Amino acid sequence: MRRSTTLTLSAALSLALAAGASAARAAVPHPSIGQATSGNGYGFVVYDLGLRKVTWLTEAPYKAKDAATQTRNVAYDAYFGLRADGEGGWLSNRPLDAAEYLDDGNVVVATQSFGPLRAKTHVFAPWGLSAASMVIALEVTNVSSVTLNDAAAFALVNLHLGVGAPNPDNTGESLSYAAATDSFTVTGPSGLTARTLSLTPTVHHGAYAAGLANPYDVVNLGGDLTDVASTGPANDAVPALEWSLAGIAPGETRWVGALVTLGDAASAGSFVAGRAADKLVSDEVAAWESWRAAPPAGLNPHELAVYRQSESVLRMAQSRLPAPSGGQLLAALPPGQWWISWVRDMSYATAALARMGHASEAKAAVAFMKGASVGGYQSYVGAPYSISVVRYFGNGTEESDSNADGPNIEFDGFGLAMWAAHAAGSSDLDASATTIAALFDPTGVVKADSSIWETHWNGKQQRFTYTSIADARGLCDAGQSAKAKALRDAILKNDELADGTLAQSVEAVARGAQQHDAAVLEAINFGLVNPKGAVAKATVNALQGALGVESGYGLFRNEDGGGYDDAEWLWVDLRLASALHRMGRDAEAAKLLWWVTEQAHDNLDLIAELFDPQTGDYEGSIPMVGFGAGAYVLAMLDRAATSAADPCFPPEGPDVTMAGPWPAPAAMGAEAPPTSTATSTASVGCSTQAAPGGHGGWIVIAAAGALAALRRRGGAR
Q1: Any idea what the CATH number is for the domain that residue 358 is in?
Q2: 43 and 25: one domain?
Q3: According to the model, what pLDDT value does residue 643 have?
């Protein structure tokens, strides 16, 4: 585990001024994330860092089962409380000292102080239980010098099982307690049943409902819960648990906790199997560690942490439900809005899983796409097809979103799916090669579609360069090298500007406006153009000149305009880093990866969808999967590669050998070994890090307020 340190705002400002004006011109890595997610392939649980409590427990691992069925989030909130020497209160009302994922896995840990006690809340969706569930475990340490004879821990688990979706209300609920299993059962009009099973024997089992003493107030007043056997029908029936911590000695640690599940009681009991809260946590961490694949060589400590957390995000994003739902990979985890299976995002995630060594997960994603139900947009496609034109519902049926300009119809997914499948060692999706061949227009490129940035239809579609690039890559992997090369040649003929750069589309070339689109970087990464050649150089230079963000590091995605387009895109930054490496421009690539890595390391090692283009604050859906975790993994694996030989595109394709792996992080100006100090009167740390070239050498990373506690600097594993 890494240590957490904070830096006071006044100290940070003083040191930042001393770093020089040049450092102030660029944004610096800083914490700006607000929530942490855990998933087990059956549902998700979200811990809110600002509210200091659980605010999500979903009934399924996707946003909607079908067009009529939204997935419900049944958690209103859940959190722990404490009492010490007569003073009681809830941890939701105490600031965070630190937060992290335990050993870069799926267990969220939030550390807080409560008088003489240090409390660590552990929240996770248990991988060994095949149901939407969460474990909430509290590790309590007496940090005082005296034994506490009056001490207790509490939990409130407020789930809403009434009517409505995606957030049901609390009407018509009913609660009952079973002494034999030390557990609560709550039912409601939702048709769901929630079971809360204590992992440590309780001394009292209370509840909130009309006519009962409110456990929230009782704990705040330093009292004990009143035992409740049942409530009968009520609007809001909330279980409350109390555990004794009496006699906890100086330096002693005790654990309490509960399993909350929407599954059946027998499965929950079998999963717990008499294990206490601390054993459930340690077993979870050990099981995740045994699943991991070896990371590439040469990662510095922060890169390794982000790589491992990205590996965990990819795993959490995959449904483990039976077919036809199982195997799909979400574009983002909740609370980010894109917890939907997009073909494009799923392809990048699948390729990442395959390349890092997780073959079974990659093949499960391929099997999902092969078994999915599609074909409803053939009138738009103009040919039979077997991969969704946009994305999938949770039940494996095709979905396309529409607006005033009609639906999104995307042809890039046909090629991307084949690319990802072959990365996983499968030819099961090669039927899309026939579809792509039927989509060539008279110029030889793929006909107009909505493409990667989803422009919709009704005149908005264009012959986007990215679509043809992706489909050329897929044709190559499917063994259609002649068609792949013909499509590549058509791209260079029709999508290339007079200055040798690749434009957004054939139409952009014709109109001479909105020509720059960062998605064309994939012509380099997918091997269509020589990374040491003129087209690659001209294109990257033009993109850097036209799409650079004010923060001083990465790019926005295109020149179409609007806040979403003009944000800094992490997928773009990471694919640019891979392209720059292939071009031999390692110093520039290192700067980008330093920025993305350090931002992630200050934000629970998670990759966001977007950065604010001025401040670098995390924005969009967090964490992203294929366009976040997957892209980071691919960038790190690309950095470690020494060859880019490609059978489809010689000699115009990439050089057979690169210059070799990127130099060691210290030679690239990556973060220097962190230092930490603490005063005798407050928990205050000072952390400095080196910025890569052009930003004034040493710069100080400042953070203030509660989010500063999220910083996790250095520390050996």
Answers
A1: 1.50.10.10
A2: no
A3: 66
Q: Has residue 1 been placed in a domain?
A: no
Same structural domain for residues 280 and 366?
no
Tell me how many domains the chain contains: 3
Tell whether 121 and 251 lie within a shared domain. Answer: yes
Domain-embedded: residue 717: no
Structure confidence at residue 645 (pLDDT): 58
| DSSP H or E stretch at residue 38 | strand 35-39
Q: Which of these, 41, 621, 38, 630, lies nearest to 325 by C-alpha position?
A: 41
**DSSP characters over 422-447:** HHTT--TTTTHHHHHHTTB-TTSSBP
Is 309 in the same domain as 271?
no
Q: Residue ranges of the alpha helices (H) in 452-555?
A: 465-477, 481-494, 506-511, 522-525, 534-547
Q: Is the dihedral of CA 210, 211, 215, 216 positive or negative?
A: positive
Could you tell me how far CA 540 lies from the centroid of its own chain?
28
Predicted pLDDT at 231? 94
| CB 53, CB 77: distance < 8 Å | yes
The answer to whether the CB of 153 falls within 8 A of the CB of 140 is: yes
Q: Does the pTM of the predicted model rise above 0.85?
A: yes
Within-domain flag for 296? no
Helix, strand, coil share (%) of the chain residues, nearest 5 = 30, 20, 45
How much is the pLDDT for 660? 36
Do 305 and 275 lie in one domain? The reply is no
Q: Which amino acid is at 498?
A: A
Euclidean distance between CA atoms 118 and 116, whole angstroms? 7
The strand ranges marked E within 366-438 are: 391-392, 398-399, 402-403, 406-407
Question: Do residues 648 and 676 share a domain?
Answer: no
pLDDT score recorded for residue 647: 61
Q: Which of 239, 270, 291 is the last residue of a domain?
A: 291
Alpha helices (runs of H) in 19-77, residue ranges in sequence order: 21-24
User: Does one domain contain both 645 and 699?
Assistant: no
Supply the pLDDT for residue 552: 83
Q: Domain span at residue 57? A: 35-291
Task: Output the pLDDT for position 134.
Answer: 98
What per-residue confidence (pLDDT) applies to 551? 85
Nearest to 370 by CA among 353, 354, 350: 350
- 273 with 359, same domain? no
Instruction: Give, for 179, the enclosing helix (H) or strand (E).
Output: none
DSSP 483: H
Residue 455: phi, psi to the nearest 5?
A: -85, 0
Sequence-distant (≥ 6) Cβ neighbours of residue 17 within 8 angstroms: none
421: left (phi over 0), alpha (psi -120 to 50) or beta: alpha
In this prediction, the residues of the chain whose per-residue pLDDT falls under 50 are 1-24, 653-717
Predicted pLDDT at 306: 98
**Domain at 151, CATH number:** 2.70.98.10
Position 689 in a domain: yes
Select from 247, 266, 291 the last residue of a domain.
Answer: 291
Q: Which residues contact residue 379 at a Cβ distance below 8 angstroms, ignoring those fewer than 6 apart?
A: none
Q: What's the Cα-to-Cα distance from 54 to each of 46, 89, 204, 415, 641, rounded to whole Å?
A: 6, 17, 22, 40, 41
CB-based contact 385:378 (threshold 8 Å): yes
